[in-house]
Every structure is written in structure tokens, then in C-alpha cells.
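pinging the channel bc i need a second pair of eyes. not urgent but kinda urgent?? the chain im working w is below, pasted from the shared doc
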Amino acid sequence: MTQPIIQLSGLDKFYGNFQALSQVDLDIKTGEFFSLLGPSGCGKTTLLRSIAGFETPSAGSLYIDGQSMDGVPANKRPTNMVFQSYAIFPHMSVAENVAYGLKARKLPKAEIKTRVTDAIAMVGLQGFGERASHGLSGGQRQRVALARALVLKPRVLLLDEPLSALDKKLREQMQSELRQLQRAVGITFVLVTHDQEEALTMSDRIAVMFDGTIAQVATPQDLYGQPCSRRVANFIGMMNFLDAKILSTSGETVDVDVQSFGKLTLPLGQATGGLEGCDAVGVRPEMLTILTGSQTAEREIEAVVSEVFYYGDMTYYDVRLPFKEESVTITMRNTAGRSILGVGEKARVGWSASSLLLLK
């Protein structure tokens, strides 16, 4: 098995009495696109800066490429970082910005020219070498920052919310380009983001962080489909929660009484974080269906539409279920011939026991 490119064990970070990181254990594989995801203040940027060498952990060990980084300064680590602000020098041309690190290392001029040309082409800025940096668009500055980091040929590229300043359309374009670039160069990318969609679409694996700790590490599919807790489920996409009470367990199944849905028998595997402490059932909005005409489902419950949100390709319904005060959200794709219900109309909601998750 290939050794992880980054290995963190028992990492703590204190600022005075405030603990920003608490017992972080994490392995990041060579060549993967890895994301640190969490709300503001959860410790993800502190963790990234610790890997980069801009922060010194208070305790624990940090290895990169099999070597301890204890006492190794940022400029001696096999990493490079793209900052949220891009940190482009406005008085320099694109080529001068990209060449900056190579000149600091006093490489031969011919090698610098070749590597700068290759890096600029890699990020799709051919012909921009002599362009003044202050005249670039946000997306172009992003590409210059990437080229300047990649030209140094790091083993790991660290990205601190690099797309947050871009508008939605450009951000989505850059997400795709960044993923393609990572596959092309084949080095490990570690991205910090608070945007769940961004992490899900770009990453091979994601670490979800809360309060300085890692709550779960998984692939995007497993993180979305098998969250280990109510908190993770609520942070990754949308999730409806129904109160649940465990009645008994038998072999590989558990009997549970679920608000609105009644008594059910579920496989133990649907308790994704283990049975202990489970007091809710989660179900994704797309796992509920508004039935029309002669449509049927494994199970069905009557509801009343309380709100309708039309998004063109999708309609989001908030509906009231029996015995539940808070509304439940259902997402439906708008297909030919499917009518849109109005507020106050009754709805037949179809659901399956296999789509329910027992959560703590």
C-alpha cells in the first residue's frame, strides 16, 4: 500500500486558552483531491496552515512524504499554497509573478523561462505572459496564482478557499478547471472550503470539521449517503429529521418508532454512526416523492403543501406531515406533464424505509 503523502496524528493547536485544533488524526493519499470542509471557525484553515508551516502545532506529529515536519519552515516543505486573496503582485506582469519563486531559488534563466511558459499554458493563459497583473479579471488572477504555485513543482498544493471571491458562474467554471488541472498534474491538492457543493463536486475524499475536530472522513458519495451523525447530515446538503425512538434490536435489525411514519423494522446498517444515542431519523428531500394519479410507492402518507419554491428544473415543496409541527422538504424534478401543486393542496407522499437513516 502506498504511504500517505500527509500524515497527522494527535494534532493540537492552542491560541492562549482557545483550542483551535483538538487531537486531529488524518491521512491524505498521494495524488488525491482532498477537501477540508466545515463552517467558519471550525479549524480548517488552521489545519491547512499547520500543514503549510505557517502555524506550529501545540502537540502531535505531522509528516509529509514520510518526513517529519517538526521544525521545518514553510519554504523548506514540499508544499505550496494558493491564498484566498491570490496575493498577486500588481506591479509585475503575469510572467514575472509566475517566475517569482523560481528567481528566489536562483535557477538558471533558461530553465525559468521554460517552466514559466509551461505553467502559464497549464492554466490556460497562453499569450498572457506580458500582460499587466492589475488588469486581469478575477478568474485570470486565480489562474496566475495557480501557475505561480505549480511552477515550483510541489508534492502538495494547498488551497485556502481560492474560489470564494468569484461570482457563481465563474466559480463553477473554475471548479471544473481546477479538478481537471489536478488530474493532469497528478499531485495532491488539499482544499479548504465552507461550500458543501464545491467539496462534493471536486473531491476524492472530504473531512468534515466542527469545533477543531474531524467529525467524518469519507468520499462525497458516502458522506452524503451515509453521514455518521445528525450534525454532519445537516451540514452536507438538505436533510429532513423526524424524532425516533428505538424499541428493540434483534440480530441485524432494529425496531424503531418514527414520528409520522410509525413503527418500522430497519437494518442495523442504516444506523450509520452506530445505535448508541440515536434519537432521530433522517431522510433526504429527493428520497420523498409526491405521487400523482395512479402512481404508487412502497409506503405512502398524506400531507398538506405549506410552501412551494419553483426553480425551473426543480420544485421544492415544504409539506406538513401528521403529528409533526415542522414542515418537511421534498424536491421534485419538473418533467413534462407533471403539474405543480399549490399551497394548501393535499399531497400523497411516497417513501421507502430503505431511504431512512438512524442518527444521533
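so The first strand starts at residue 6 and ends at 15. and DSSP finds eight helices and 20 strands in the chain. — does that match what u expected or am i reading it wrong
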